[in-house]
Write a structure and sequence with these properties.
385 residues, mainly alpha, Mitochondrial carrier fold, 2 domains, two-stranded antiparallel ribbon, 16 helices, 4 strands, elongated
Length: 385
């Protein structure tokens, strides 16, 4: 989240506006003005700000005729910039854990769990009904090959709409920096209350279109890929047993019958592998939408929107998703659209694998319990007759 919300800023310096002595230094050794070559320690005693931009800080030994006497210790702006600027996923993990504490890496876990329960209940039950119930319009009108794509997309719309306010809170909480955990929660809640007071309760769903732009194609691709990959794994297992499925309209039903007779171990392995591969592919394919969603939601809570409104300027984050992604592509290139794809894939792929394998095992377990209970009731009824 931090890596995605980080913007590329210009590092150009107008040396003509510097004092004469500084211009001589700049001409002879221009690399001395790069933040990476300033030799900044944890605290700067002598700091010169260029054009009031905190990124351009010259610190070091006092030059004769130039400088200010040392004052009270203060946090160096360059050091602060280094702490909050991430060059890679591992660099971000290292800096966040070192500067804000190791537990900061789990910030946003509570709202994530609060969002997971109702969201997954609606998501999975909605998908099962849309995909397999004879009364479902998707079951009646969509070909079996494309039914997972449509059912997954529709189920995600229902689930995302239900948990949109919690998703908004989680995104802003994870994007906040510094301070204590309680301070982050209070600041995030205060920002949301201010937003509601100004824009009304509909503002809690302002990020819904961004969430749907990312999650709807993700869910459609995920379920389509999952059922396709697991179907291939089922075919391989059946061919090893000397059986095969005919390429007709009942092939999907034959696969599901075969899967219902699998052992718990086979079900777990097949669903785990299919879920991980499909989740990883869908995560990478929808990465630009995730970057655009994060940028927009963080922008609305960072105070930059107020500045843009005061200056009557239209920031890219205030425009449509298509224009925002085009702006990111023009300013940062293709890497900007896929910024943070490694941590997201490392999170999504195993999460999808664990989620779907647990779901499939749970379905089989409870179905067995219901079938045994049904047989016992049926036996008692026959005994009474």
């Amino acid at each position: 989240m931090r890596l995605q919300s980080q913007k590329v800023t210009s590092t150009g310096v107008d040396f003509q506006k510097l004092p004469a002595d500084f211009q001589k230094i700049a001409v002879s050794t221009p690399s001395a003005f790069r933040p990476s070559n300033l030799g900044v320690t944890a605290c700067c005693r002598e700091v010169f700000f260029m054009n009031n931009n905190a990124e351009f800080c010259v610190a070091g030994t006092k030059i004769e005729g130039i400088g200010i006497p040392p004052g009270n210790p203060a946090d160096c702006s360059v050091e602060r910039t280094r702490q909050t600027t991430f060059t890679s996923t591992l660099d971000g993990l290292r800096k966040v854990s070192r500067n804000e504490g190791f537990t900061t890496l789990w910030r946003g876990l509570t709202p994530t769990l609060a969002m997971a329960l109702p969201g997954n209940v609606i998501y999975f039950t909605g998908y099962e009904w849309l995909r397999f119930n004879p009364m479902s319009p998707i079951y009646r009108t969509t070909k079996d090959e494309y039914a997972p794509l449509v059912a997954g997309a529709v189920a995600r719309v229902l689930a995302a709409t239900a948990v949109s306010p919690i998703e908004l809170f989680r995104t802003r909480l994870q994007a906040s920096q510094g301070g204590s955990a309680g301070g982050h929660v209070q600041k995030t809640l205060q920002g949301i209350r201010q937003m509601v007071s100004v824009h009304g309760y509909r503002s809690l769903f302002l990020g819904l279109n961004l969430t749907l732009a990312r999650d709807v194609p993700f869910s459609g691709m995920y379920w389509w890929g999952y059922e396709m990959i697991r179907g291939r794994l089922t075919d391989i297992r059946e061919r090893r047993r000397g059986r095969s499925f005919e390429r007709d309209r009942s092939r999907g039903r034959a696969r599901r019958r075969s899967q219902s007779r699998e052992t718990h171990a086979d079900t777990f392995v097949d669903s785990f592998v299919a879920g991980a591969l499909s989740g990883g592919f869908a995560s990478i394919a929808t990465m630009p939408f995730d970057v655009g969603k994060t940028r927009t939601q963080v922008f609305r809570d960072s105070g930059e929107s107020i500045v843009a409104e005061a200056t009557k300027g239209s920031a890219p984050e205030e425009q449509s998703m298509r224009r925002l992604l085009w702006h990111i592509f023009k300013t940062e290139g293709v890497p900007g659209l896929f910024k943070g794809w490694i941590p997201r894939t490392l999170k999504v792929a195993p999460a999808c694998a664990i989620m779907i394998s647990s779901y499939e095992i749970g379905k089989r377990t409870f179905r067995g319990v219901n079938e045994r209970a049904f047989r016992r009731r049926q036996g008692r009824n026959e005994g009474d007759v």
